[in-house]
Structures are given as structure tokens and as C-alpha cells.
Amino acid sequence: MTDERAGGTAGVAVVMGADELPVVMPPDLQKWLGELTGREVRVIPVRDGLGLLSCQAVLDGVDVLVTGWGCPPLTKAVLDAAPQLKAVIHAAGSVKPLVTEAVWERRLVVSSAAEANAGPVADFTLAAIGLAAKGALPAAAAYADGGRWPAFRDRQGADGRTIGVLGASRIGRRVIAGLRASTAGYRVLLYDPYVTDEEAAGLGAERVDRLADLCRAVGIVTVHAPGTPDTYRLLDAEHLALIPDGGTVINTARGSIVDTEGLERECRSGRLSAWLDVTDPEPLEPGHALLRLPNVLVTPHIAGAQGNEGRRLGTYAVEEAGRWVRGEPLLGTVEREILDRLA
């Protein structure tokens, strides 16, 4: 077929890992993608990485590229094989592993399904906060050892109803909203240097100027900042030491933001607990202390990609491709200027 936006014969390619493909973009969504875009759909399960992507016969004539986990970076060599490409629609969250400088030089439209990904991660986080506020991990460990855990217990300094949110990202904002809607009566403190007092109040949180002040005042710290050089080890050993005894660290953002060794020491001592869906390194080596401690729960990066979330991401990407073809504004547009501040 001919399409004016593509400048010639138009096609759409779906490029993602062979294991992820049937979950994120099953045959019925592939069919719907073709119907919404009016294009031939080429499905490319990635098993051998760049060698497959750089094949001219695969990407020639493609104007819309739907990507996902397992898609290699879009380097100049890859893009040279797709001279008609106009839009990259990512059926996952962060586009940082995918987008290179060559993408911006080509002035390609980039969209991400991060908004669709945010809801499940926020739900996961809120569940972890609720359990952490009840001291569920140490309680379960004591119970398993035959010990009695009192129904009402002094938190020994950590106020389980005061929650510190590190980062007002799209997920962080959803978490704040969920906490404010809870009947538990949470108090929410926010640390984010890009948010004003007025903006924080509008979200339902109290902004603090220093991360140290947040750590001293809360019983639970939940991490929602992007993984950047500025946030590397932001929650370091010194900040972890400021969290009151009995406190909890929850990380569903990026493992690099938390000092792994410092957290291990605090949890090994029993002073803190942790709920970690991400770690640094990821995965942790077998036998790592954080995998064995009774007051730590490590899950394999499932907060935004378990249950029906994969299909949700695929559906978002299909609808976004349809919007692009119809010339409508995209909901998940990623701009070069803000990429560094995104997760």
C-alpha cells in the first residue's frame, strides 16, 4: 500500500525478544495493529540481536517500528536499514536502552507505554507499603521460628504511617495519590528537587529540602526516581543510617539508586527491612545476603510486567500506532529534552 506519511510503501515492524513477543504482542494484537494502521505487519522475534535488525530486507519500507524488551539499541546502522522509518513506539517503559543519538538526529517520533506501565508498578508499591507498615516481613520470620508476634506492637522509632517518597515521577505521583486515598491515614513526605512546595501540596505531600530530613522523619522510604548519574547511590549508606530503627526501604524504580552494600548491612543487623523489585547488580548473585535475609523480599523485576501487564503494554502500543497513522497527538511522546529525567 502507499501512505503519504511514509513516503512510499508502508509497513509496521514489531521487534522484541522472542520470549516477550507472545506475551506483549500475541497474534490477535498483531492483527489489530494491522487493522488500525492499514499496514503489513512484520513480526521479528529477536534471538540474534543486531544481526537480525540490520538486515535491509527486514526493515526496508517500514515507517512504524513497535519495540519492546529485547529489542537491540536503534543505532545508526540499524536506522540506515530503515530509511522510511518515522515513528518508534515502545511497548514497555523506559526507552533509554533503546534510543540512541541517531534516533534524535533522524527526528523520529518516539513514544513509550510508560504510562500503561505505571499503574501496575504503583499498585505493587502500595501493596508493599501496606505490608511494610504492618511489619509483615519480620512478623512472618518470627512466626516461622515459632515466636509469638503481638497483635499491637511498638514500632520502636519507625512511624509506619509516615511515608517518604523519593521522586515525583509518574509512578511516584500515583503512589502519593494512592496513599492519600487510603483509610490508613498516611502522612506523605516528598523529596524531589524539581518539585515546588505548591506542586507537592497539590499532589497531597509535604516537600522536604533535603533527603536526610526525609529519612529521619519516616518509617518507610519508597524509591521512584529515574536511574541517572545524579541519582546513583542517592540513598547511600549515610542516608540509610538515618532511617529510624524498624524502618523499611521499598525500591521499584532502579537498583542503582540504593547503596546495595549499605542496605545489606542495615538489613543484616535487623534494623531495617526491605522490599526490592530491582537491585544493583540485577540479578544479585546466587546466595547474596539480600536473597536470604528473613526481613528482605526480593522479587525479579515483576512490578510492571506480571499478570496481564504485558498485554496491557501491547494494547497501548497498538492504540498509539493507530493514533500516529491518523495524525492524532500521541499519549506517550518522549522528548529528547526530558529523557534524562525519565526512569
From TrEMBL:
- Indicate the segments forming the D-isomer specific 2-hydroxyacid dehydrogenase NAD-binding domain, all copies: 137-303
Task: List, alphabetically, the InterPro entries matched.
Answer: D-isomer_2-hydroxyacid_DH (IPR050223), D-isomer_DH_NAD-bd (IPR006140), NAD(P)-bd_dom_sf (IPR036291)
Its domain of life reads Bacteria
Q: Which UniProt keywords apply?
A: NAD, Oxidoreductase
Q: Does the keyword Oxidoreductase apply?
A: yes
Against PANTHER family, the record matches this protein to: 2-HYDROXYACID DEHYDROGENASE YGL185C-RELATED (PTHR10996:SF178), 2-HYDROXYACID DEHYDROGENASE-RELATED (PTHR10996)
> This protein is called what?
Hydroxyacid dehydrogenase
Species whose genome carries this gene? Streptomyces aureoversilis
